[in-house]
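The protein record quoted for completeness.
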Amino acid sequence: MLHFKVMTNKNQNNFNTQLDPSYVTGLVDGEGCFSVGMYSNKKYKGGWRVMPVFQIHMHGKDADLLMGLKKYFGVGTVRINKKTGSVNYSVSSLKDLTNVILPHFIKYPLITQKCADFVLFKRIVDLMNRGEHLTSEGLAKIVSIKASINKGLSKELKATFANIDIELRPEVVDQKIKNPN
């Protein structure tokens, strides 16, 4: 049973404030997530579907804020989970990640340890844009990078890619807000 409601600008117009780019970065530093899902699927070259996703998951009372974020970026989807009362903004289109999400965080950098996840996430998106996720060597590179993002690898990925070298997580040391101008 589906408990999600997709929100569109038609059914949500309470957020009329233009978000400041630095505020957006701060919000993502605290609440956002850069993740890469990998799912075994014989329909895909190499047998794996690679899905990079940028998302923010919050309490349902913050739905207006996430609609404002969707309006700010101009891409993505906002879904409300009626069962849990939570709301999620996500962007999974490779084109939108490449052309909208990544450029924002390059211009307005994250300052917490989430910056390391972003750097690794960007490497995976770059590999995918070059089509490397369609080769066994490219998949191994992606798994190597994914191992250092968030919670790392699932048991299935660890078993399938047992001989990969895990890419080291970048160290975040310059934790100062930078002026993008």
